[in-house]
C-alpha cells in the first residue's frame, strides 16, 4: 500500500473526485496558491482557476455562495482555512445549508463540503486552534467528519464530496504531516462506521481526530501495566457508530471518552450520556470524559499545553476505571 | 412621487400589461386572503404582506424566463407568484397543510418552487444575497445563459452579506440583478435613520455595480428598467435596481404600525401601484369593466385557494422525519 501524508491523502481525494465529476469545484481564500497549508497545491494547474477558485475574504459569501451553487447542481468544496473563521458564516451553514432541504420540503439538496481545519497548532492561540465539532453535531442536517489517519482522510473526503447533504469536514492541523498507508484506488469511506484501533477487554476508550493518536499511545502504556484497552476511533460524529460503542462497552463494562475539545458540552458528553442511558446495568464504573478545561487556548507553549489532554491523563483515567 | 402619469403611455403593449395587471391583482388578493386567515388564526406563523409593492415583483419577473432564478426575502409572496408559482400550493403552505410547497414544513418565510426557478424565501435578512451570488456563480461555471434576480429590502444593505455578495458578483462578473425594494421601513424603524451615507444605490455603485433608480409604484417604469437591465445582466454583468416604494401594511399582518402617522399611510394609498396601473390602462383605452372583471377574477381565485387550503389535510406526522439528511436516523437519540 502506498504511504503518504494526511495532507497528500486529501489532496489526492479531491483531485480524483474533480476528475470523476466535472461539477465538483473548490472555492476559498488563496486556493490558487495551494491553500494555507498546501492542501490544494498544484491542483490549479490541472483544473484551472474556475474550479480551484480564489475567493475574496468573505467567509459568509464563500459559504452562502456554495449553498446557492449547490442548489443549482454543482458540488462545491468550500475551504474555511481555520474552523475558527467559519464562525463568520454560521448563518450560511446552520440556517441555510443545513436546513434548505427540510424547510423547502425536499425540493432541493445542498451537496456541499465545508473543510474546517480544527485543533491546536503550536502557538496559534485562541482564534486559530479551536475544536468546535460538537457545535455541528448538534445541528440537524449536517454530517460531521473528523478523520484521524491519512487513509481516512482520503476515503472520507471522497464520501463527503459524493454526499448529497452538507458535510462539515474537519481535518486536524496537527495531522497534516502524519504519514500512513493509504489503499490505492477509489476507496470511498462510510459515514457512521467507527474504526477499531485496538482490541481489548478491560476498558473502552472512544476518541476521534488527533486525540486518537494520544489514546493509542496510552493504550500501549496501559498494556505494559496489564490493562487491555479497546480503542475506537469514531471517524464521524454525525452519524456516529453507536453500535460499535455499545458493543464494546457491553463487553468491557467501562467507558472513557477522550477529546481535544473543551469537555463541557462537548461531543464526549453525548457519547457518555448515550452509553449511560442504555448500559447502566452493565457498567462496572461510572462513564468518564476527558477533554480540555473551559478556557480559551493560550499562545505560550507552557500555557497551551495546560489544555492539552496528555497520554498520562488518559492512562490515569483508564486505570482509575479499571480499579474503580 | 410620480404616479402612472409619467409612464410612457404611448404604444402600450396592452396584452402584456393586462397580464401584469392581472398578476398584481392576484398577488394583492392572495395576501388579503392570507391576512384574513391570519386574523382568524388559521394561518399561525408570521406573514409579511407586500401590499403596495406588487409592481416591483411583477415588473421584474415578467421579464424573466421560466428557467431564470429568483431568490426572495421574508416578504416573498409577490415575487414567488410573479415567477409563476402556484397560488394554491402557496396558500396551503401558509396554512401548514399537505400539498403546500414545503409540505407544511416551511410556512410563509420558506416558500420555494424550484420548478419555476424560485430558490426560496428566506427568514434571515440579507442571507439570500450570498446564495444568489452562488446560484449565479453556478450558472457561469456551467456556461448557461440564465440570470439570477435577488430581491431584498432596504434594511438588508446594513448586513455584511450585502457587501460580500455584491463584491462577489462584481469580482466574478456574475449574471445577477440585485433588486432593492426601498419601502421606507425595516420592521418598525425608518430605514434611513439606521443607514449611514447615501443609501443602497450609492453603496452598489461604490462596489462597481451600476445602479438604476426607479419608481417602484409604477409598473411601467419597473418593467422598462427591468427589461433593459436583465438584458445587460444576461451578458454577464451584474446590475442593481433600486425601486422606491412604501409598505402600505404593518411589518407583519399582526403589526398595526402605530409608529407612523395615519395621514402618511392614507396619502401613500393614493399612490397604490395597482390603481396607477389601472389608470394608465384606462387612459390607453381598456374598458373599466374589463379591468374590474380581472380584479374580480383574482378575488374569486384567492377566495377559492383560501377555502381549499383551509379544507386540506394536515401533513402526515412521519413527514417530520423526512428530508433531514440521508445518513443518521433522526429518531435514534431522542426516543
Ligand atoms: C439577520 C436578521 N436580523 C433581524 C431579522 C428580523 N427582521 C425580519 S424582517 C426585518 C426588517 C427587514 O427590513 P427590510 O430589509 O427593509 O425589508 P422589509 O421588511 O422592509 O421588506 C427584520 C429586522 C431577521 N429576520 N434577520
From TrEMBL, chain A:
Required cofactors, per record?
thiamine diphosphate
* Molecular function per GO: oxidoreductase activity
Work out whether the entry's keyword set contains Nucleotidyltransferase. Answer: no
Keywords assigned: Oxidoreductase, Pyruvate, Thiamine pyrophosphate
SMART domains according to UniProt = Transket_pyr (SM00861)
Domain Transketolase-like pyrimidine-binding, which positions?
Answer: 4-178
Q: A single Pfam family, by name?
A: Transket_pyr
Q: Tell me the SUPFAM superfamilies matching this sequence.
A: Thiamin diphosphate-binding fold (THDP-binding), TK C-terminal domain-like
Q: What is this protein called?
A: Pyruvate dehydrogenase E1 component beta subunit
Organism in which the protein naturally occurs:
Tepidamorphus gemmatus
From TrEMBL, chain B:
Which reactions appear under catalytic activity for this entry?
N(6)-[(R)-lipoyl]-L-lysyl-[protein] + pyruvate + H(+) = N(6)-[(R)-S(8)-acetyldihydrolipoyl]-L-lysyl-[protein] + CO2
* InterPro entries reported in the protein's UniProt record: DH_E1, PDH_E1_Alpha_Subunit, THDP-binding
- Cofactor field: thiamine diphosphate
Q: Which residues form the Dehydrogenase E1 component domain?
A: 23-313
Under Gene Ontology molecular function, one entry of this record is:
pyruvate dehydrogenase (acetyl-transferring) activity
* Highest taxon, organism lineage: Bacteria
What's the name of the protein? Pyruvate dehydrogenase E1 component alpha subunit
Write the record's keywords in alphabetical order, separated by commas.
Oxidoreductase, Pyruvate, Thiamine pyrophosphate
Functional summary from the UniProt entry: The pyruvate dehydrogenase complex catalyzes the overall conversion of pyruvate to acetyl-CoA and CO(2). It contains multiple copies of three enzymatic components: pyruvate dehydrogenase (E1), dihydrolipoamide acetyltransferase (E2) and lipoamide dehydrogenase (E3).
In the record, biological process GO terms are: pyruvate decarboxylation to acetyl-CoA
| Name of one Pfam family that matches | E1_dh
Q: Which organism is it from?
A: Tepidamorphus gemmatus
Amino acid at each position: 500500500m502506498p504511504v503518504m501524508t494526511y495532507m497528500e491523502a486529501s489532496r489526492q481525494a479531491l483531485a480524483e473526485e474533480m476528475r470523476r465529476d466535472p461539477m465538483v469545484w473548490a472555492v476559498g481564500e488563496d486556493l490558487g496558491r495551494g491553500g494555507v497549508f498546501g492542501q490544494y497545491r498544484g491542483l490549479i494547474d490541472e483544473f484551472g482557476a474556475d474550479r480551484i477558485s480564489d475567493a475574496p475574504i468573505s467567509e459568509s459569501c464563500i459559504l452562502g455562495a456554495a449553498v446557492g451553487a449547490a442548489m443549482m447542481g454543482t458540488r462545491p468544496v468550500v475551504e474555511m482555512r481555520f474552523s475558527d473563521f467559519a464562525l463568520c458564516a454560521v448563518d450560511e451553514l446552520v440556517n441555510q445549508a443545513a436546513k434548505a432541504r427540510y424547510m423547502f420540503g425536499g425540493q432541493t439538496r445542498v451537496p456541499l463540503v465545508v473543510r474546517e481545519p480544527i485543533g491546536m497548532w503550536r502557538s496559534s492561540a485562541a482564534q486559530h486552534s479551536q475544536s468546535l465539532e460538537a457545535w455541528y453535531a448538534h445541528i440537524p442536517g449536517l454530517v460531521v467528519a473528523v478523520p484521524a489517519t491519512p487513509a481516512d482522510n482520503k476515503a472520507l473526503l471522497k464520501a463527503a464530496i459524493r454526499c448529497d447533504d452538507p458535510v462539515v469536514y474537519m481535518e486536524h492541523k496537527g495531522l497534516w504531516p502524519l504519514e500512513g498507508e493509504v489503499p490505492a484506488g477509489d476507496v470511498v469511506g462510510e459515514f457512521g462506521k467507527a474504526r477499531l484501533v485496538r482490541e481489548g477487554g478491560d476498558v473502552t476508550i472512544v476518541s476521534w481526530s488527533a486525540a486518537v493518536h494520544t489514546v493509542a499511545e496510552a493504550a500501549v502504556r496501559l498494556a505494559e501495566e496489564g490493562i487491555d484497552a479497546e480503542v475506537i476511533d469514531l471517524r464521524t460524529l454525525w452519524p456516529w457508530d453507536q453500535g460499535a460503542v455499545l458493543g464494546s462497552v457491553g463487553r468491557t463494562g467501562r467507558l472513557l471518552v477522550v477529546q481535544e475539545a473543551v469537555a463541557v458540552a462537548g461531543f464526549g458528553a453525548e457519547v457518555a450520556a448515550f452509553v449511560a442511558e442504555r448500559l447502566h446495568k452493565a457498567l462496572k464504573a461510572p462513564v468518564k470524559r476527558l477533554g480540555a478545561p473551559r478556557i480559551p487556548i493560550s499562545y505560550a507553549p507552557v500555557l497551551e499545553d495546560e489544555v492539552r489532554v496528555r497520554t498520562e491523563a488518559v492512562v490515569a483515567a483508564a486505570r482509575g476505571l479499571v480499579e474503580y | 412621487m410620480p404616479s402612472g402619469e409619467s409612464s410612457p403611455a404611448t404604444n402600450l403593449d396592452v396584452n402584456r400589461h393586462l397580464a401584469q395587471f392581472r398578476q398584481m391583482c392576484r398577488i394583492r388578493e392572495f395576501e388579503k386572503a392570507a391576512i384574513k386567515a391570519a386574523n382568524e388564526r388559521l394561518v399561525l406563523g408570521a406573514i409579511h404582506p407586500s401590499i403596495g409593492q406588487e409592481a416591483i415583483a411583477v415588473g421584474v419577473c415578467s421579464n424573466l424566463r421560466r428557467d431564470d432564478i429568483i431568490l426572495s426575502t421574508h416578504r416573498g409572496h409577490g415575487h414567488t407568484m410573479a415567477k409563476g408559482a402556484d397560488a394554491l400550493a402557496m396558500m396551503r403552505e401558509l396554512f401548514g397543510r399537505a400539498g403546500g410547497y414545503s409540505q407544511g414544513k416551511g410556512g410563509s418565510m420558506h416558500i420555494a418552487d424550484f420548478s419555476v426557478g424560485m430558490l426560496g424565501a428566506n427568514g434571515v435578512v440579507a442571507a439570500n444575497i450570498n446564495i444568489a451570488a452562488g446560484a449565479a456563480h453556478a450558472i457561469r461555471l456551467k456556461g448557461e445563459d440564465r440570470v439570477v434576480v435577488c430581491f431584498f429590502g432596504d434594511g438588508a444593505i446594513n448586513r455584511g452579506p450585502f457587501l460580500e455578495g455584491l463584491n462577489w458578483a462584481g469580482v466574478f462578473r456574475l449574471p445577477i440583478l440585485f433588486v432593492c425594494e426601498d419601502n421606507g421601513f425595516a420592521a418598525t424603524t425608518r430605514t434611513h435613520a439606521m443607514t449611514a451615507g447615501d443609501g443602497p444605490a450609492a453603496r452598489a455603485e461604490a462596489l462597481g455595480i451600476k445602479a438604476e433608480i426607479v419608481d417602484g409604484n409604477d409598473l411601467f417604469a419597473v418593467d422598462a428598467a427591468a427589461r433593459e437591465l436583465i438584458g445587460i445582466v444576461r451578458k454577464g454583468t451584474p446590475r442593481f435596481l433600486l425601486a422606491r416604494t412604501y409598505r402600505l401594511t404593518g411589518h407583519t399582518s399582526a403589526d398595526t404600525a402605530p409608529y407612523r402617522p395615519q395621514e402618511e399611510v392614507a396619502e401613500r394609498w393614493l399612490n397604490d401601484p395597482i390603481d396607477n396601473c389601472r389608470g394608465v390602462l384606462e387612459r390607453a383605452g381598456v374598458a373599466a369593466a374589463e379591468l374590474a372583471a380581472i380584479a374580480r377574477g383574482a378575488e374569486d381565485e384567492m377566495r377559492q385557494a383560501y377555502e381549499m387550503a383551509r379544507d386540506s389535510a394536515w401533513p402526515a406526522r412521519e413527514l417530520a422525519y423526512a428530508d433531514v439528511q440521508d445518513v443518521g436516523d433522526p429518531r435514534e437519540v431522542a426516543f
